[in-house]
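Me: I hope this is not a bother. Any chance you could explain this protein sequence and its structure tokens? It all follows right here:
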Amino acid sequence: MSLLDVYLQKNGKKRYDVFKETGMSQQMLANVNKKNVSSYSVKTIQAIAKTVNKSEGLVLDELLKLEMENAIFEVYNTDDLLLALNNKEPYIAIKGEYKTQMEELAKSQLSDTETLGLELGSAGLVTILAEGFYQLANLFSNKDDEKKKIESQLRKYKIKKVNESEFLLYLLQFDY
């Protein structure tokens, strides 16, 4: 999980804001994003604290609490979704107005029963054929690159409707 991104998001910030505010390199922040809070350096905690205008102790406490909760990355727009997909977040909550845009993609997913029926009926061959058709259709598609990237990465996720204003995406590997 990208704990740093989730924490910054909850405070209305991004890694770029930490870079801009403190000068801490983007590469360093990307590396920190993959680690547990216990391995964050004092310099990193200080940079985060300065960016979110909180004390270092409070930031550390909130990060540790967030780590224990296994926080879910919340998405409100395309940029947030791309960030979550690039970080390979295990769980992604789609909220707000962006949820209505995702409904079309959710409708295109087969149910578990339908998927199982197709795979069993074709001895798994349908999965290979579907991937071939998808790649061919994508090759001739006039969609912009951003949308193609999102659709491609979303194929690794299962979409579940939580309520009227929220979808939950979770990696397909968690279904097994």
